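DATA SHEET
Item: assembly model
Revision: 1
Owner: S.N.
Input lines:
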Amino acid sequence: MTENKSNEIKIKTVNLSFYYNRLHVLKDISVEFPERSISAIVGPSGQGKSTFLMIFNRLWETIPDARMEGEAFIRLKNKWVNIYDRSISLPELRRSAGMVFQTPNPLPMSIFKNISFPLKLSGVIEKQAVDEKVEFALKQAFLWEEVKDRLSDDARSLSGGQQQRLCIARALTLDPEILLLDEPTSFLDAGSGQIIEDLLLSLKESCTILLISHYMDQIRRIADRVMELSGDTSNNS
Amino acid sequence: MKERFIEIFIKSFAWLSGLLLLSAAFVIIGFLLVKGVPTLSLSLIFGDTSPADALLLRRQVLTGLFPAMAGTCLLVLLSVGLATPVGLAAGIYLAEYSRGNLKSFFSLFYDILAGVPSIVIGLFGFSLAISLHHYVKEIYPCLLISALALAFLVLPYLIRTTQFAMESIPSETRLTAPALGATKLQNIAYVLFPRSLPGIASGVILAIGRCAEDTAVIMLTGVVAAAGIPGSLLSAYEALPFYIYYISSQYRDAYELQTGYGAAVILLIICACLFLAAFYLKNQLMDRMLYRQ
């Protein structure tokens, strides 16, 4: 594992603990992630890896009976921000920290509408700007050539690998500073997984990527550093 | 061996039950068509008025079903139009905003409302019209009062189908938009609501059917045997189900009874057209919200 020392810290947690009801899933985690790198998060099932990712876009707050202690910081637009501060706007935080789930989750709409959806949410409606953004995001996600002639087709008609790249493209339309990926290749065949890995390597030039993965060979190929979440401790290497 | 027998028995019983229902529906519709279709004619609908004059409202139709058809259509459109926005909003509230005890309380209340017999709602509408008459002399039992009462009758269907349609959306879809920075309202407007449209449409179709066929409510709130096309929301009106009820209990000769069957066939046709319209509207809305660039 090589780590580029010159990269500044982008994300950090301080004494972070997490509970589902009485169940104590994350215990006192203080960790830092450098910018423009891929950090892999590994560990057995049920140790809160997905929960850990959701700390950074606060998506866990929609889960009933969940509770967090400690603090989490992200350096957004070169300013350290406590993302659990009252002044933080949730939609803005989630636009800066895009998330891609394990199962591809295209919305039941056309390919174009899926990609332009985050733009619509943030109020970008000027037709030409939207078109350009959509094309750019699809190119960034290595998907443009495959879908440029069928943008108004239902996104669910794409193959699994294409759907996952669509979801990555969708997360990219708002130029996020951070990408949170929860086992993005686990439901894909080797070929599609390979494309996603290449894609992630090209994206780390502009994003800080946190990636949950079960595949040690995948981690060896693309991760700059590894964090292990297990029973009581978290180890960094 | 025994288990296999039970399995075969249950399977055939389920199959027969399905068949029974289907054949019952066929028998009823077939019976209506056999009895009713021969009476269908322009004169059944327009009497001795010329169709063009009747449709352009230049002359009143005195002996045909045209005023009753117009009354039923107006009544359905008015009551479903009044009930739908309220029903959708209440359903969305129940599914997305209310929690805990308050939600159980509201659910119980809507279930009770769903269980109120239509004649009681009719009585309530009648009392409402009478008490309003004390303050505004123009208000009698009329089209508007009927529509309001029917709207209350169908509200529980709309609320429940909307709620269930929204609640049955899988959690991956539910989290997609928030993860992309959607506010709660944006999530509802752009994802959850369009996704629920098929379920909501079936609720609206149920409501249309209920409004078109109801006799108990309208009998007490403004329908009459002969009123012509209603001139305003505050006038009395005619309606097909009431005509069928009236003619089948008061007929003077075989032909009049026959026209009752004719009216029933026309009522079925009107319902089918309204269902198709609701379906078309749903498809257009979904296409607009989800696919068109």
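QC remark: Chain B has a mean pLDDT of 91.
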